[in-house]
Protein backbone atom coordinates (compact mmCIF):
# COMPACT_ATOMS: atom_id res chain seq x y z
CA UNK A 1 0.00 0.00 0.00
CA UNK A 2 1.31 3.45 -0.95
CA UNK A 3 1.24 5.79 2.04
CA UNK A 4 0.85 9.51 1.40
CA UNK A 5 1.91 11.86 4.17
CA UNK A 6 0.88 15.43 4.95
CA UNK A 7 3.89 16.02 7.18
CA UNK A 8 6.02 19.05 6.20
CA UNK A 9 8.97 18.30 3.93
CA UNK A 10 11.92 20.41 2.74
CA UNK A 11 11.79 22.56 -0.37
CA UNK A 12 14.46 20.95 -2.51
CA UNK A 13 17.10 19.08 -0.55
CA UNK A 14 17.46 21.35 2.47
CA UNK A 15 15.10 24.31 2.15
CA UNK A 16 12.34 25.40 4.52
CA UNK A 17 9.77 22.72 5.34
CA UNK A 18 6.21 23.06 4.08
CA UNK A 19 3.07 20.96 3.94
CA UNK A 20 3.02 19.28 0.49
CA UNK A 21 -0.04 21.08 -0.85
CA UNK A 22 0.43 24.05 -3.18
CA UNK A 23 -2.05 26.50 -4.66
CA UNK A 24 -1.95 28.74 -7.73
CA UNK A 25 -3.54 32.12 -7.03
CA UNK A 26 -5.24 33.18 -10.24
CA UNK A 27 -8.28 35.38 -9.61
CA UNK A 28 -10.59 36.39 -12.43
CA UNK A 29 -11.56 39.98 -13.20
CA UNK A 30 -15.26 39.10 -13.02
CA UNK A 31 -15.00 37.44 -9.61
CA UNK A 32 -16.70 38.94 -6.56
CA UNK A 33 -14.49 41.41 -4.63
CA UNK A 34 -14.37 39.10 -1.62
CA UNK A 35 -13.72 35.89 -3.57
CA UNK A 36 -9.93 36.04 -3.26
CA UNK A 37 -10.10 36.55 0.50
CA UNK A 38 -12.46 33.59 0.82
CA UNK A 39 -10.21 31.37 -1.30
CA UNK A 40 -7.07 32.34 0.63
CA UNK A 41 -8.85 31.71 3.93
CA UNK A 42 -10.01 28.30 2.69
CA UNK A 43 -6.50 27.34 1.57
CA UNK A 44 -5.09 28.41 4.93
CA UNK A 45 -7.73 26.43 6.80
CA UNK A 46 -7.03 23.37 4.65
CA UNK A 47 -3.36 23.50 5.58
CA UNK A 48 -1.81 24.37 2.23
CA UNK A 49 1.93 24.87 2.53
CA UNK A 50 2.71 26.96 -0.55
CA UNK A 51 1.07 29.86 -2.35
CA UNK A 52 2.10 30.59 -5.96
CA UNK A 53 1.46 33.75 -7.95
CA UNK A 54 2.50 34.97 -11.39
CA UNK A 55 2.49 38.35 -13.07
CA UNK A 56 1.45 36.67 -16.31
CA UNK A 57 -2.36 36.55 -16.37
CA UNK A 58 -3.98 33.15 -16.58
CA UNK A 59 -5.70 32.74 -19.98
CA UNK A 60 -9.28 33.94 -19.83
CA UNK A 61 -8.89 35.65 -16.46
CA UNK A 62 -9.34 39.15 -17.88
CA UNK A 63 -6.60 40.50 -15.60
CA UNK A 64 -3.80 42.91 -16.44
CA UNK A 65 -0.16 41.84 -16.20
CA UNK A 66 0.73 41.89 -12.52
CA UNK A 67 -2.85 42.34 -11.31
CA UNK A 68 -3.01 38.98 -9.51
CA UNK A 69 -0.02 40.01 -7.38
CA UNK A 70 -1.60 43.41 -6.76
CA UNK A 71 -4.82 41.83 -5.51
CA UNK A 72 -2.97 39.38 -3.32
CA UNK A 73 -0.78 42.16 -1.97
CA UNK A 74 -3.81 44.26 -1.09
CA UNK A 75 -5.19 41.30 0.84
CA UNK A 76 -1.90 40.82 2.69
CA UNK A 77 -1.88 44.50 3.65
CA UNK A 78 -5.45 44.30 4.91
CA UNK A 79 -4.84 41.05 6.80
CA UNK A 80 -1.08 40.59 7.43
CA UNK A 81 -1.60 37.26 9.19
CA UNK A 82 -2.63 35.72 5.86
CA UNK A 83 0.97 36.01 4.62
CA UNK A 84 2.31 33.88 7.46
CA UNK A 85 2.42 30.11 7.70
CA UNK A 86 3.15 29.12 4.11
CA UNK A 87 5.84 29.55 1.49
CA UNK A 88 5.40 32.23 -1.15
CA UNK A 89 6.44 31.28 -4.69
CA UNK A 90 6.62 33.90 -7.45
CA UNK A 91 6.81 33.10 -11.15
CA UNK A 92 8.58 35.52 -13.44
CA UNK A 93 10.93 35.93 -16.35
CA UNK A 94 8.40 37.08 -18.92
CA UNK A 95 7.53 40.62 -20.00
CA UNK A 96 4.00 42.06 -20.22
CA UNK A 97 3.94 40.84 -23.82
CA UNK A 98 4.63 37.27 -22.62
CA UNK A 99 8.16 37.44 -24.06
CA UNK A 100 10.76 35.48 -22.06
CA UNK A 101 13.59 37.64 -20.70
CA UNK A 102 16.03 36.08 -18.25
CA UNK A 103 18.77 38.69 -18.40
CA UNK A 104 20.04 39.50 -14.92
CA UNK A 105 18.88 43.12 -14.86
CA UNK A 106 15.48 42.20 -16.26
CA UNK A 107 14.86 39.39 -13.78
CA UNK A 108 15.94 41.47 -10.82
CA UNK A 109 13.82 44.46 -11.79
CA UNK A 110 10.78 42.30 -12.56
CA UNK A 111 10.97 40.36 -9.30
CA UNK A 112 11.48 43.56 -7.29
CA UNK A 113 8.35 44.98 -8.94
CA UNK A 114 6.32 41.86 -8.15
CA UNK A 115 7.46 41.90 -4.53
CA UNK A 116 6.41 45.54 -4.32
CA UNK A 117 2.96 44.63 -5.63
CA UNK A 118 2.76 41.91 -2.99
CA UNK A 119 4.09 44.19 -0.26
CA UNK A 120 6.80 41.73 0.79
CA UNK A 121 10.59 41.96 0.74
CA UNK A 122 11.38 38.45 -0.42
CA UNK A 123 9.93 35.42 -2.13
CA UNK A 124 10.64 32.02 -0.63
CA UNK A 125 10.88 30.63 -4.16
CA UNK A 126 11.33 32.23 -7.57
CA UNK A 127 10.25 30.14 -10.56
CA UNK A 128 11.52 31.04 -14.02
CA UNK A 129 8.29 30.87 -15.99
CA UNK A 130 9.71 29.85 -19.38
CA UNK A 131 13.08 29.17 -21.00
CA UNK A 132 14.70 32.17 -22.67
CA UNK A 133 15.99 30.79 -25.96
CA UNK A 134 18.04 33.94 -26.57
CA UNK A 135 20.03 33.58 -23.36
CA UNK A 136 22.85 31.10 -22.82
CA UNK A 137 22.15 28.82 -19.84
CA UNK A 138 25.25 30.27 -18.17
CA UNK A 139 23.72 33.75 -18.33
CA UNK A 140 20.38 32.55 -16.98
CA UNK A 141 22.09 30.63 -14.18
CA UNK A 142 24.04 33.72 -13.14
CA UNK A 143 20.85 35.80 -13.17
CA UNK A 144 19.03 33.31 -10.93
CA UNK A 145 21.95 33.07 -8.51
CA UNK A 146 21.97 36.87 -8.30
CA UNK A 147 18.35 36.90 -7.11
CA UNK A 148 19.32 34.68 -4.19
CA UNK A 149 22.53 36.60 -3.45
CA UNK A 150 20.64 39.90 -3.32
CA UNK A 151 18.01 38.54 -0.98
CA UNK A 152 15.07 38.78 -3.36
CA UNK A 153 14.47 35.02 -3.35
CA UNK A 154 15.30 32.32 -0.88
CA UNK A 155 15.54 29.66 -3.59
CA UNK A 156 15.07 29.32 -7.34
CA UNK A 157 13.40 26.88 -9.66
CA UNK A 158 11.85 26.63 -13.11
CA UNK A 159 8.50 26.07 -14.77
CA UNK A 160 7.70 24.81 -18.27
CA UNK A 161 11.29 23.76 -19.01
CA UNK A 162 11.90 20.62 -21.10
CA UNK A 163 14.47 18.21 -19.65
CA UNK A 164 17.31 19.25 -21.95
CA UNK A 165 16.91 22.95 -21.13
CA UNK A 166 16.70 22.13 -17.43
CA UNK A 167 19.82 19.99 -17.49
CA UNK A 168 21.78 22.70 -19.34
CA UNK A 169 20.70 25.29 -16.78
CA UNK A 170 21.53 23.05 -13.82
CA UNK A 171 25.03 22.49 -15.18
CA UNK A 172 25.81 26.21 -14.78
CA UNK A 173 23.82 27.09 -11.68
CA UNK A 174 25.79 27.77 -8.50
CA UNK A 175 22.77 27.37 -6.21
CA UNK A 176 20.60 24.26 -6.49
CA UNK A 177 17.36 24.10 -8.43
CA UNK A 178 14.94 23.82 -5.53
CA UNK A 179 11.74 23.22 -7.47
CA UNK A 180 10.47 22.25 -10.90
CA UNK A 181 6.91 23.06 -11.90
CA UNK A 182 5.45 20.86 -14.61
CA UNK A 183 2.02 19.58 -15.65
CA UNK A 184 1.24 16.12 -14.33
CA UNK A 185 -2.10 14.39 -13.88
CA UNK A 186 -3.86 11.15 -14.71
CA UNK A 187 -4.69 12.75 -18.08
CA UNK A 188 -1.32 14.47 -18.66
CA UNK A 189 1.58 12.07 -18.13
CA UNK A 190 4.12 13.66 -20.46
CA UNK A 191 6.45 14.48 -17.57
CA UNK A 192 6.55 10.82 -16.65
CA UNK A 193 7.42 9.77 -20.19
CA UNK A 194 9.91 12.46 -21.24
CA UNK A 195 12.21 12.07 -18.24
CA UNK A 196 11.24 15.28 -16.45
CA UNK A 197 10.24 13.52 -13.23
CA UNK A 198 13.37 11.39 -13.29
CA UNK A 199 15.52 14.47 -13.77
CA UNK A 200 13.83 16.20 -10.85
CA UNK A 201 14.69 13.22 -8.67
CA UNK A 202 18.29 13.29 -9.92
CA UNK A 203 18.58 17.00 -9.06
CA UNK A 204 16.87 16.65 -5.67
CA UNK A 205 14.29 19.23 -6.70
CA UNK A 206 10.75 19.44 -5.38
CA UNK A 207 8.23 18.72 -8.14
CA UNK A 208 5.26 21.06 -8.24
CA UNK A 209 2.68 19.13 -10.23
CA UNK A 210 0.55 21.77 -11.94
CA UNK A 211 -3.07 20.98 -12.83
CA UNK A 212 -3.24 17.64 -10.97
CA UNK A 213 -6.94 17.52 -11.85
CA UNK A 214 -6.27 18.39 -15.52
CA UNK A 215 -7.84 21.84 -15.13
CA UNK A 216 -10.84 20.25 -13.43
CA UNK A 217 -11.52 17.60 -16.06
CA UNK A 218 -10.97 14.79 -13.56
CA UNK A 219 -12.30 16.63 -10.54
CA UNK A 220 -15.73 16.40 -8.98
CA UNK A 221 -17.55 19.11 -10.99
CA UNK A 222 -19.72 17.61 -13.77
CA UNK A 223 -19.52 20.79 -15.85
CA UNK A 224 -15.77 20.32 -16.28
CA UNK A 225 -15.76 16.54 -16.80
CA UNK A 226 -13.30 15.17 -19.30
CA UNK A 227 -14.33 14.27 -22.82
CA UNK A 228 -15.39 10.82 -23.99
CA UNK A 229 -11.76 9.98 -24.81
CA UNK A 230 -10.91 9.89 -21.09
CA UNK A 231 -13.72 7.62 -19.95
CA UNK A 232 -11.39 4.74 -19.07
CA UNK A 233 -9.43 6.99 -16.72
CA UNK A 234 -12.62 8.34 -15.17
CA UNK A 235 -13.95 4.81 -14.61
CA UNK A 236 -10.76 3.77 -12.84
CA UNK A 237 -10.76 6.90 -10.67
CA UNK A 238 -14.42 6.48 -9.78
CA UNK A 239 -13.98 2.82 -8.87
CA UNK A 240 -11.23 3.63 -6.37
CA UNK A 241 -13.11 6.67 -5.04
CA UNK A 242 -16.24 4.59 -4.45
CA UNK A 243 -14.29 1.91 -2.58
CA UNK A 244 -12.64 4.44 -0.28
CA UNK A 245 -15.44 6.92 0.27
CA UNK A 246 -13.67 9.93 -1.22
CA UNK A 247 -14.21 12.12 -4.27
CA UNK A 248 -12.70 11.51 -7.67
CA UNK A 249 -10.51 14.59 -7.22
CA UNK A 250 -8.85 13.08 -4.13
CA UNK A 251 -7.92 9.91 -6.02
CA UNK A 252 -6.64 11.89 -9.01
CA UNK A 253 -4.42 14.02 -6.77
CA UNK A 254 -3.23 10.92 -4.89
CA UNK A 255 -2.17 9.34 -8.21
CA UNK A 256 0.07 12.36 -8.78
CA UNK A 257 1.49 12.46 -5.25
CA UNK A 258 2.24 8.72 -5.18
CA UNK A 259 4.92 8.87 -7.89
CA UNK A 260 8.43 8.15 -6.64
CA UNK A 261 9.46 11.79 -7.24
CA UNK A 262 6.92 12.74 -4.53
CA UNK A 263 5.26 15.52 -6.53
CA UNK A 264 3.44 18.23 -4.61
CA UNK A 265 0.01 18.79 -6.19
CA UNK A 266 -0.28 22.41 -7.32
CA UNK A 267 -4.01 23.08 -7.41
CA UNK A 268 -5.46 25.77 -9.66
CA UNK A 269 -9.03 25.91 -8.39
CA UNK A 270 -10.24 29.18 -6.89
CA UNK A 271 -13.29 27.54 -5.30
CA UNK A 272 -13.12 27.56 -1.46
CA UNK A 273 -14.99 24.27 -1.14
CA UNK A 274 -12.58 22.50 -3.48
CA UNK A 275 -9.59 23.94 -1.62
CA UNK A 276 -11.00 22.70 1.67
CA UNK A 277 -11.42 19.22 0.17
CA UNK A 278 -7.88 19.05 -1.26
CA UNK A 279 -6.32 17.35 1.82
CA UNK A 280 -8.61 14.36 1.20
CA UNK A 281 -5.86 13.04 -1.06
CA UNK A 282 -3.98 12.00 2.08
CA UNK A 283 -6.88 9.72 3.01
CA UNK A 284 -6.50 7.73 -0.20
CA UNK A 285 -4.73 4.37 0.03
CA UNK A 286 -3.54 3.23 -3.38
CA UNK A 287 -1.88 -0.09 -3.87
CA UNK A 288 0.56 -0.63 -6.70
CA UNK A 289 -2.05 -2.30 -8.92
CA UNK A 290 -4.39 0.70 -8.50
CA UNK A 291 -1.67 3.13 -9.54
CA UNK A 292 -0.62 1.10 -12.58
CA UNK A 293 -4.22 0.62 -13.72
CA UNK A 294 -4.58 4.39 -13.74
CA UNK A 295 -1.33 4.72 -15.64
CA UNK A 296 -2.40 2.11 -18.19
CA UNK A 297 -5.67 3.97 -18.74
CA UNK A 298 -3.78 7.23 -19.26
CA UNK A 299 -1.37 5.58 -21.70
CA UNK A 300 -4.25 4.14 -23.70
CA UNK A 301 -5.83 7.55 -24.06
CA UNK A 302 -2.76 9.43 -25.28
Summarize the structure.
This protein has 302 residues and is α/β, with parallel strands linked by helices. The chain has 11 helices and 10 strands. The longest helix has 15 residues, at 104-118.
Please supply descriptive tags for the structure shown above.
two-stranded antiparallel sheet; 39% helix; globular; 14% strand; TIM Barrel; 302 residues; alpha/beta; eight-stranded parallel barrel
Description:
- The chain has 302 residues and is α/β, with parallel strands linked by helices.
- It has one domain: TIM Barrel (Alpha-Beta Barrel).
- Helix content is 39%, strand content 14%.
- It contains 11 helices and 10 strands.
- It has helices at 35-46, 67-78, 104-118, 137-149, 163-172, 190-193, 196-203, 231-244, 248-257, 272-277, 288-300; strands at residues 9-10, 17-18, 22-24, 50-54, 87-92, 125-128, 156-159, 177-183, 206-210, 264-267.
- Strands 3-4-5-6-7-8-9-10 form an 8-stranded parallel β-barrel, surrounded by 4 helices.
- Helix 2 (67-78) crosses helix 3 (104-118), helix 3 (104-118) runs parallel beside helix 4 (137-149) and helix 8 (231-244) runs antiparallel to helix 11 (288-300).
- The longest helix is centred in the middle third of the chain and has 15 residues, at 104-118.
- It is globular.
- The mean pLDDT is 93.
Amino acid sequence: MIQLHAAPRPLGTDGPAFVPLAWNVRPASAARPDSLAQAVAAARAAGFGMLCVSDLPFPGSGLRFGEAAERLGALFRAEPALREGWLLAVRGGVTPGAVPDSRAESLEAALAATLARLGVARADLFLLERPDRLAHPRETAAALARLVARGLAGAVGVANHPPAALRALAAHLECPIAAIELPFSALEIGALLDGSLDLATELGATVLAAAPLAEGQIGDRPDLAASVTARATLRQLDAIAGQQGVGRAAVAAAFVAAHAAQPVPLFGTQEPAELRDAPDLFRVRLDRSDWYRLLDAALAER
